[in-house]
User: Which sequence fits this backbone?
């Protein structure tokens, strides 16, 4: 209920957010127009802004190297303002202006409307990093995709690392009731951890915005013996509060989670003192260990934006544009059906891992590997790529 | 229940309640005089947080940074009055509602554009991350600091309100603004003063609230604003004491549910909390502590 209140507050606010960026209508026929409805303001901004920055670098790179199908690429983003209706309207406006591909926001609730508009006119829409399995061809249509692995993979990769590689048999799970992402991630972790033979000692609830973990903490401390691993599915900034509270009272059990941990803000908030024995599953790693081309990307990013990336989420934006470019090149046209067919049948090597999609009947489920990162003394380190064997069904 | 559990329960309520009470007091001090809710109140906390973040690299000791952050909250509090309230406050409630929302949006977007939409960490002293053990219960020292800080602030505030000319002027302006002006209380100064005090509370809350979180995001002020609003509504919008009572009561309700509800019901904790809020309002429509009848909006 507090969330709904919050959302209504936010929607009141978002009505008043700045004047939208004007879309220039100078669109030439020898250009390929990619439209973005990413949110630069509101709750979705932390996830969409890095994606946009990565996408801009990709467009520059493509144009410097001959564009797509021999044509220069034009990329325009209209601020979706973290409001599903505005995101949908932004997509409509972009399509009216001639967009032949749509980059959708990094979340089902906010990205879905952009994909639905793209589907209506038969063009391909790709979300930069929506990971809820709702982002599928089942719910959005046969030309819609998400670049991210699904939470099924994200949760299962964590469970396999914990159980198979580390031998952690018992888990304590905290679920933030914030959004579909936080709820489904721990659901799939629990499902897969149990399938592997692990034992979930307790599942705990947290309400985003509380900044108070004391009651849950007293229950956690009462568990004897302590769990082998603590799985927390939450979101910044509350995620920092929860981990700090746990570490503050001297609980040293390893902590695991998903891509919301992939944030330098979290590493700094935990610092050397609390930032140890924490592991998370995410999209990629900003180093050549993850992909040989990563160094090139970071260099291009630095040249374009003037500073190195502050989160690995920038790679999702780059990948989305590059995936579109590769698929269009193979298809030989910008036709939605042709590009969707290529995406369904080919495998792509991206900064965020090897990616192939299942057919539209199978929901466009992404077969994708995940990156495991470990945090030690507040410093992240690359552990490796992992692809869970049989992730739970959505 | 062991003595330790009870101690922990009580301390949890007191430390969260202290924060809520300070948040509520900062909101109600302005409401008391202007009869208008400052919706940009949460952003004062955000501004203090970003001040801390920006000073992170500076060579100053932490206390100086904290002081600078609080001063910044006061400055922005005064600016809120100057930019959003003063030009329109004699016109209509709707106008002020919109300008205060607009100012809040402006500040949030400034943080979004000029810093980042992603979380930025704030420097914290070591004592904020240490803990002590009492009766086999580990208590973060930060919680004890919060309680002590709140008691100090509430004590000082109550002294100022009751024993000084300033306090008398503030109380007079809150109860009969026109009459207060007639006897020579400078209206604009009193209103500015109320905003400055509001900023002071927001600044202190920011230090303690961010001390729990460790980082700041542009939307960080929403929850404190909401908490302050609910606490003042149940405590009584017209009474300063009501705001404090409301803050502690809200913490009592929240923490009790967190401890007492089963996992299945805990998902719906906010529904239970607001049910109690509604019940309180059904029986005491103007809040638990009624406060004196006041004059018209100024």
Assistant:
């Amino acid at each position: 209920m507090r969330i709904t209140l919050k959302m209504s507050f936010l929607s009141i606010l978002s009505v008043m957010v700045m004047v939208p960026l004007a879309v220039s209508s100078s669109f030439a026929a020898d250009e390929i127009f990619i439209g973005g409805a990413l949110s630069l303001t509101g709750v979705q901004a932390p996830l969409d802004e890095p994606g946009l920055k990565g996408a801009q670098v990709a467009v520059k790179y493509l144009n410097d190297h001959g564009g797509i199908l021999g044509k220069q690429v034009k990329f325009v983003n209209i601020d979706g303002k973290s409001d599903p209706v505005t995101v949908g309207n932004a997509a409509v406006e972009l399509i009216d202006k001639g967009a032949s591909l749509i980059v959708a926001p990094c979340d089902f609730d906010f990205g879905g409307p952009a994909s639905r508009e793209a589907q209506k006119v038969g063009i391909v829409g790709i979300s930069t990093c929506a990971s809820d399995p709702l982002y599928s061809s089942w719910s959005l249509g046969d030309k819609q995709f998400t670049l991210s692995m699904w939470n099924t993979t994200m949760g299962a990769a964590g469970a396999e690392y914990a159980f198979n590689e580390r031998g952690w048999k018992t888990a304590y799970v905290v679920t933030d009731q914030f959004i579909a992402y936080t709820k489904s991630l721990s659901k799939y972790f629990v499902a897969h951890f149990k399938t592997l033979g692990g034992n979930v000692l307790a599942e705990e609830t947290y309400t985003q915005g509380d900044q108070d973990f004391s009651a849950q903490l007293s229950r956690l401390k009462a568990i004897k013996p302590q769990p082998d691993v603590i799985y927390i599915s939450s979101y910044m900034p509350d995620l920092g509060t929860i981990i700090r509270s746990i570490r503050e009272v001297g609980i040293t059990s390893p902590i695991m989670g998903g891509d919301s941990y992939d944030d330098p803000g979290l590493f700094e908030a935990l610092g050397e003192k609390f930032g140890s024995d924490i592991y998370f599953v995410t999209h990629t790693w900003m180093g050549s260990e993850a992909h040989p081309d990563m160094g090139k990307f970071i260099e291009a990013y630095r040249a374009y934006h003037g500073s190195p990336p502050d989160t690995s989420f920038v790679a999702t934006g780059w990948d989305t544009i590059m995936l579109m470019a590769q698929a269009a090149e193979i298809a030989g046209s910008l036709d939605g059906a042709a590009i969707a067919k290529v995406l369904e049948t080919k495998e792509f090597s991206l900064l965020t891992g090897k990616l192939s999609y299942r057919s539209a009947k199978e929901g466009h489920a992404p077969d994708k590997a995940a990156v495991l990162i470990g945090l030690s003394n507040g410093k992240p380190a690359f552990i490796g790529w992992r692809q869970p064997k049989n992730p739970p069904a959505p | 229940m062991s003595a330790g559990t009870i101690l922990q329960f009580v301390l949890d309520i007191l430390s969260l309640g202290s924060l809520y009470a300070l948040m509520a007091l900062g909101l109600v001090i302005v409401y008391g005089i202007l009869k208008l809710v400052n919706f940009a109140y949460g952003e004062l906390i955000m501004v203090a947080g970003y001040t801390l973040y920006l000073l992170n690299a500076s060579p100053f000791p932490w206390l100086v940074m904290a002081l600078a952050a609080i001063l910044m909250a006061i400055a922005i509090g005064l600016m809120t009055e100057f930019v959003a309230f003063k030009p329109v406050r004699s016109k209509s409630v709707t106008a002020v509602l919109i300008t205060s929302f607009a100012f809040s949006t402006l500040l949030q977007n400034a943080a979004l554009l000029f810093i980042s939409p992603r979380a930025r960490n704030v420097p914290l002293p070591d004592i904020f991350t240490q803990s002590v053990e009492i009766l086999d219960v580990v208590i973060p020292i930060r919680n004890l600091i919060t309680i002590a800080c709140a008691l100090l602030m509430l004590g000082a505030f109550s002294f100022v309100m009751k024993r000084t000319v300033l306090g008398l002027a503030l109380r007079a302006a809150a109860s009969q603004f026109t009459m207060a002006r007639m006897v020579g209380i400078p209206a604009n100064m009193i209103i500015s003063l109320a905003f400055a005090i509001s900023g002071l509370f927001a600044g202190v809350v920011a230090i303690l609230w961010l001390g729990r979180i460790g980082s700041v995001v542009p939307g960080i002020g929403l929850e404190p604003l909401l908490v302050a609003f609910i606490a003042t509504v149940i405590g009584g919008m017209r009474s300063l004491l009501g705001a404090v009572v409301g803050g502690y009561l809200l913490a009592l309700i929240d923490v009790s549910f967190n401890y007492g509800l089963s996992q299945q019901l805990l998902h719906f904790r906010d529904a239970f909390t607001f049910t109690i809020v509604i019940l309180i309002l059904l029986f005491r429509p103007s809040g638990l502590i009624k406060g004196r009848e006041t004059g018209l909006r100024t």
Notes: The longest strand of chain B covers residues 131-134. The radius of gyration of chain B is 19 Å. Chain B is about 70% helix and 5% strand.
